[in-house]
């Protein structure tokens, strides 16, 4: 009967099937000793140390990744070497918000040119499409000082994008004050029709309130309030002898003092600004075509605007009870235009009533 081999230190031999290559260790306390944790898993302390060192390297790499805000260069090289991985795609930073172009739009609306209708449409569209509609409660200050221009431009430029800012204000040159020039849009109308709309608005207000006109023109006498517009024009009343047909030009000319003076310089400056800064200048008499173009040019703002405008429910909100131009006798339109030319030729002096 064969005796079991005994280890020099006593006890059973840890390698009953023979010592490993390289010879057996000197004793049980040797660092090269093999330890059996599981029946089929054997490793040395050297292997254990190597695993711990590898784990430490990855821990330090992970720490460096978080502190520097990005992966180490060697991890990027490793990813390129191993091929594409979905890890960074799944766990990387979220993609930045892609802004539509243009994301900064200014509608410096001209008074009595359908702006109230357009603003109401914009309120509906801003809720539908999620853009930032920035409005102003200031309605009667279109000319600004230099400091007022700087302050307004700063407030507009810091608004959350995409935004659409709207206010009755003459053209503002953002680039003059170091800002990004936005895209402008506007709507105008036949100057005579605009005068008629304003004539009745000053006397009877609009649909917002029956007493609106009493607030705007409290000192207007009753006979003046109910004065027939045809008589006003034919009798050369001051209000009708200067119909202010030039009123529209400064909205495109700008804040320069000469923009307030009727003449060739202001007109040419306005045309230049329209060509360089305005995406669209529509005509109120062709509003449906204007809305269609806005929907094509600025879909992230105006998509679906034409259908909203034609919707019966929206139509009730958008309707206005202004007197129509049919109240003006035939042939008085050219008379008003002629009077306006005479007023300019006389240096802005009101012609005498005859």
Automatic annotation (TrEMBL):
Please give, as recorded in its UniProt entry, the membrane topology of this protein: Single-pass type II membrane protein
Matching SUPFAM superfamilies, A to Z?
P-loop containing nucleoside triphosphate hydrolases
| Protein location | Golgi apparatus membrane
- Gene3D superfamilies the UniProt entry points to: P-loop containing nucleotide triphosphate hydrolases (3.40.50.300)
Give one Pfam family, short name only. Sulfotransfer_2
PANTHER family from the xrefs? HEPARAN SULFATE 2-O-SULFOTRANSFERASE (PTHR12129), URONYL 2-SULFOTRANSFERASE (PTHR12129:SF15)
Q: Which family does it belong to?
A: Belongs to the sulfotransferase 3 family.
Stated name of the protein: Uronyl 2-sulfotransferase isoform X5
Q: What is the lineage of its organism?
A: Eukaryota, Metazoa, Chordata, Craniata, Vertebrata
């Amino acid at each position: 009967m064969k005796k079991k081999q005994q280890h020099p230190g006593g006890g059973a031999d840890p390698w009953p099937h023979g010592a490993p290559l390289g010879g057996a260790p000197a004793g049980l306390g040797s660092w090269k000793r093999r330890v059996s944790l599981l029946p089929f898993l054997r490793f040395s302390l050297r292997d254990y140390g190597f695993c711990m060192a590898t784990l430490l390297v990855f821990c330090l790499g992970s720490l460096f990744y978080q502190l520097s805000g990005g992966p180490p260069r060697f991890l990027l090289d490793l990813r390129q070497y191993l091929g594409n991985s979905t890890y960074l795609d799944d766990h990387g930073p979220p993609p930045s918000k892609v802004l539509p172009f243009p994301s900064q739009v200014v509608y410096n609306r001209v008074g009595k040119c359908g702006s109230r209708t357009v603003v109401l449409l914009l309120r509906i569209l801003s809720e539908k499409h999620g853009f930032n509609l920035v409005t102003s409660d200031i309605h009667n200050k279109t000319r600004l000082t230099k400091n007022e221009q700087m302050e307004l431009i700063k407030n507009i430029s810091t608004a959350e994008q995409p935004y659409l800012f709207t206010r009755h204000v003459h053209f503002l040159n953002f680039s003059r004050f170091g800002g990004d020039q936005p895209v402008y849009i506007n709507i105008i109308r036949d100057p005579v029709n605009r005068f008629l709309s304003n004539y009745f608005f000053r006397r009877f207000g609009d649909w917002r309130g029956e007493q609106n006109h009493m607030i705007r023109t409290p000192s207007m006498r009753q006979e003046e309030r109910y004065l027939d517009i045809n008589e006003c024009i034919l009798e050369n009343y001051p209000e009708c002898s200067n119909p202010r047909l030039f009123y529209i030009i400064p909205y495109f000319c700008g804040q320069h003092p000469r923009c307030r003076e009727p003449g060739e310089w202001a007109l040419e400056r306005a045309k230049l600004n329209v060509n360089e800064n305005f995406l669209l200048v529509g005509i109120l008499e062709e509003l449906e075509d204007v809305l269609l173009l806005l929907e094509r040019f600025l879909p992230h703002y105006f998509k679906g605007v034409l259908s909203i405008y034609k919707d019966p429910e929206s139509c009730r909100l958008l309707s206005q009870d202004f007197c129509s131009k049919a109240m003006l006798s035939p042939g008085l339109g050219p008379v008003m235009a002629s009077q306006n030319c005479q007023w300019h030729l006389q240096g802005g002096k009101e012609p005498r009533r005859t």
